[in-house]
Design goal:
single chain, alpha/beta, Rossmann fold, 10 helices, 36% helix, SAM_dep_MeTrfase_SAV2177_type, SAM-dependent_MTases_sf
């Protein structure tokens, strides 16, 4: 495929729009259809900050995976991986430690179909059913050795009823000491109240309609249930029982973006990396970082 519209030329256009394909469009990728582009443009009309934030998030993920590999980890599981739009965990691994096994997990059929034509390994799985994911990873991941598990911009698609804390705990109970968890989550911080409420309402409405996926930007009640000690980016209280990787929980644009990720966006996404065997926590601004 050589152009952003090339996906339409060889596959029947699916309905409804896909979150993964819309995200690919925000990143400037090729794996999207007209239905995705139209839905994405409706959202961008309400929330123009979404495209630069998607790019910030992608660069944060790349930096975080790079950090994990440089610490000696050679297994990466990227849940909610989407299309391998550059910079992808696979690219980072090939550059730093080609022997690393990177496994993506996604529930989007078009993501899975495209993976068969790429040099990437992706299994089908839904974060809301972590035990099924763990079953499919059996034999692919050596859980007795450290693993980097990434949840980049995916937990805010879970509702309170989906029990995001329980989903994270299921992986925590499997991971070996020395493992690391990388999470970014949309934040309510960064925009004046009235405009932000309008933007957020528009995004929620549009995302539910075209992609039929709910959107929970730092839901305070959900956050308190997962981690009562949640705190704001820039502080460390409540983030980890021992040693979050420095600088801890921060907004992407303040710390975790490489050159080229874009500038001028509202600070909408928080991210962090956690050391060791993971406990449950989720801050009000959205990153999960913990160790035992």
């Amino acid at each position: 495929m050589s152009s952003p519209t090339s996906a339409d030329s060889f596959v029947s256009v699916p309905e409804p729009a896909s979150v993964a394909r819309m995200y690919d469009y925000y990143l400037g990728g090729k794996d999207n259809y007209e239905v995705d582009r139209e839905a994405a443009e409706r959202i961008l009309a309400k929330a123009s900050w979404l495209r630069p934030i998607a790019r910030h998030n992608r660069w944060f993920l790349a930096r975080a995976v790079r950090h994990c590999l440089k610490s000696g980890i050679r297994q990466v599981v990227d849940i909610g991986t989407g299309f391998p739009t550059s910079p992808s965990p696979w690219e980072v691994a090939r550059d730093i430690a080609p022997e690393t096994r990177v496994i993506g997990v996604d529930n989007d059929e078009t993501v899975l179909a495209h993976a068969r034509t790429r040099q990437v390994e992706i299994i089908k799985g839904d974060l809301r059913d972590p035990n099924a994911i763990l079953d499919r990873l059996d034999g692919l991941v050596d859980w007795s050795r450290p693993v980097a598990l990434t949840l980049a911009a995916v937990l805010h698609f879970l509702t309170e009823d989906d029990d995001p804390a329980g989903c994270v705990r299921a992986f925590r109970n499997t991971m070996a000491p020395g493992s690391r968890l990388v999470i970014s989550h949309i934040s309510r911080d960064g925009t004046p109240g009235r405009r932000h409420r309008s933007d957020r309402t528009g995004v929620q409405r549009q995302r539910r309609r075209p992609a039929r996926v709910p959107h929970q930007p730092g839901n305070p009640e959900l956050v308190r249930r997962v981690h009562p000690g949640g705190t704001r980016p820039g502080t460390s209280r409540g983030l980890a029982s021992r040693s979050p990787v420095r600088p801890g929980l921060v907004h992407h644009r303040r710390r975790h973006c490489d050159a080229g990720a874009g500038r001028g966006s509202s600070r909408r996404t928080a991210g962090g990396i956690g050391d060791g065997v993971i406990s449950d926590l989720l801050t009000e601004n959205g990153a999960i970082i913990d160790s035992t």
